[in-house]
Automatic annotation (TrEMBL):
<keyword id="KW-0535">Nitrogen fixation</keyword>
<dbReference type="InterPro" id="IPR000318">
    <property type="entry name" value="Nase_comp1_CS"/>
</dbReference>
<dbReference type="GO" id="GO:0016163">
    <property type="term" value="F:nitrogenase activity"/>
</dbReference>
<comment type="similarity">
    <text>Belongs to the NifD/NifK/NifE/NifN family.</text>
</comment>
<dbReference type="Pfam" id="PF00148">
    <property type="entry name" value="Oxidored_nitro"/>
</dbReference>
<dbReference type="InterPro" id="IPR005975">
    <property type="entry name" value="Nase_Mo-Fe_CF"/>
</dbReference>
<dbReference type="InterPro" id="IPR050152">
    <property type="entry name" value="ChlB/BchB/BchZ"/>
</dbReference>
<comment type="pathway">
    <text>Cofactor biosynthesis; Fe-Mo cofactor biosynthesis.</text>
</comment>
<protein>
    <recommendedName>
        <fullName>Nitrogenase iron-molybdenum cofactor biosynthesis protein NifN</fullName>
    </recommendedName>
</protein>
<dbReference type="GO" id="GO:0065003">
    <property type="term" value="P:protein-containing complex assembly"/>
</dbReference>
<dbReference type="InterPro" id="IPR000510">
    <property type="entry name" value="Nase/OxRdtase_comp1"/>
</dbReference>
<comment type="function">
    <text>This protein may play a role in the biosynthesis of the prosthetic group of nitrogenase (FeMo cofactor).</text>
</comment>
<feature type="domain" description="Nitrogenase/oxidoreductase component 1">
    <location>
        <begin position="19"/>
        <end position="428"/>
    </location>
</feature>
């Protein structure tokens, strides 16, 4: 069991984490026709928007209630109401996801009450648009908590309650925020190969996959439909990916009675085998031949790649579930987790990370702990530490803004794990340094003293 080392510094040095509101907005962006709305100042929204645009290289729909000094003192209910009506009239979204920031949370605004009053007074005007609130203060938690709270809020605010007739082939899937567009898309293909119908919430593979629409769309286009969220209770089974998705899975269970199975990771042979076995059990179908072939390819990749992983020291900085996903991947191939840094101590998964300790901290902590490591694994903000330490950097997580296509990087199930092995092994091979003759033979250039080498004098 890893020891959790709490943050002791009074300031962050090269911050690792992003805020809860950003995580909530990220989840809302996975719904079709959605508009995330930050309830706070313009600066909070601008910062999140910059990160989204730099990571996805796309136009991101994100709005703000634009609280000013007066609203901060006297209350911002009017700003919230005006923002909701402006969005409804101008962009006609199917979902407005309100994400609270530290400003309104610190002030103690009753945002839930304000939204309830707005809905009650303007039922007809808001017809066709769901308004969902996620309480996500910046000062608490990080992206994972914000994502989970937004998904929970959508389930509790939209999904029809009560036991419903179950569709025998329908599966509700709640992916964690550490899954990429490619991960979600590949997971859907896997589920459909068993003849099952997946409903994924949120589905960023349909809304943030980098397509070019034939016309300007002010909201998200693609992703989970509001109607699919409403009908989640008709699913036969719920599958949650990542420990932070336990909360929304429990919310769905309590609301509709749909049972859930939680996978803490889908990277690696053993976890993927469990996932495939579950799909086979639910569908009653045999594992397709192409899936079996992907498994055989992964086994071969593990045989080929483990020579490059054995004994390597890895330093990882990521959100808790992604830290667990990557640490177990590296440890399973014979590497040592020399440094593990994460954003928050709220997740129970941290105790299972295969490392001596997990530091709650920032990229400054990673840099100090990673001395002597063979590989750094974190997002793009770790590039300066990589340069200073002269250790190669594997970019993963959010944000990745100095490389193209990060959202299309696959890292789960048989094929994703295979590709991850090849990527890491190639990084190791590209950064190998051939030993010099001096390093192999430290006595090679030793100076031999004149006294020991001189021949004895005559008569001695």
């Amino acid at each position: 069991m890893a020891r959790i080392l709490l943050q002791s510094k009074s300031a962050a040095v090269n911050p690792l984490k992003s805020s809860q509101p950003l995580g909530a907005a990220f989840a809302f962006l996975g719904v079709d026709g959605a508009m995330p709305l930050f309830h706070g100042s313009q600066g909070c929204t601008s910062f999140a928007l910059v990160l989204f645009v730099r990571h996805f290289k796309e136009a991101i729909p994100l709005q703000t209630t634009a609280m000013d000094e007066v609203a901060t003192i006297l209350g911002a209910a009017d700003h919230l109401e005006e923002a909701i009506f402006n969005l409804k009239n101008r962009t006609k979204p199917k979902l407005i996801g309100v994400c609270t920031t530290a400003l309104v949370e610190t002030r103690g605004e009753d945002c839930a009450g304000d939204i309830a009053n707005i809905k009650l007074k303007h039922t007809q005007e808001l017809a066709g648009t769901e308004v969902v609130l996620a309480n996500t203060p910046d000062f608490d938690g990080a992206i994972e908590e914000g994502w989970a709270r937004a998904v929970t809020a959508m389930i509790e605010g939209i999904t029809r309650s009560g036991e419903r007739a179950r569709h025998p082939k329908k599966i509700a899937i709640l992916p964690g925020c550490n899954l990429t567009v490619a991960d979600v898309e590949h997971m859907r293909d896997m589920v459909e190969s068993f003849g099952l119908k997946p409903v994924i919430l949120p589905d960023i593979s349909g809304s943030l996959d980098g397509t070019v629409p034939d016309r300007w769309v002010a909201t998200t286009y693609g992703g989970t439909s509001v109607e699919d969220i409403r009908e989640l209770g008709t699913a036969m089974q719920c599958i949650a990916i990542g420990e932070h998705m336990r909360r929304p899975a429990k919310a769905l269970l309590g609301l509709t009675g749909v049972p859930y199975v939680l996978f803490q990771s889908l990277t690696g042979l053993q976890d993927t085998d469990r996932f495939v076995s579950l799909l086979s059990s639910i569908s009653g179908a045999a594992v397709p031949a192409r899936v079996r072939r992907r498994r055989a390819q992964l086994q071969d990749a593990m045989l080929d790649g483990h020579f490059h992983f054995g004994g390597k020291k890895i330093a990882i900085a990521a959100e808790p579930d992604q830290l667990f996903q990557l640490a177990t991947f590296f440890a399973g191939l014979g590497s040592e987790i020399a440094a593990a840094v994460t954003t928050t101590d709220r997740s129970k998964i941290l105790e299972k990370v295969p490392a001596v300790s997990v530091q709650i901290g920032d990229l400054g902590d990673l840099e100090s702990l990673a001395v002597g490591a063979d590989l750094l694994v974190t997002h793009s903000h770790g590039r300066q530490a990589s340069e200073r330490l002269r250790i190669p950097l594997m970019r993963i997580g959010f944000p990745v803004f100095d490389r193209l296509g990060s959202q299309h990087k696959l890292a789960i199930l048989y094929q994703g794990t295979r590709d991850l092995i090849f990527e890491v092994a190639n990084i190791f091979q590209a950064n190998q340094h051939a030993p010099t003759p001096e390093a192999l033979d430290p006595l090679r250039n030793r100076e031999i003293s004149h006294e020991r080498c001189s021949p004895p004098l005559a008569g001695q």
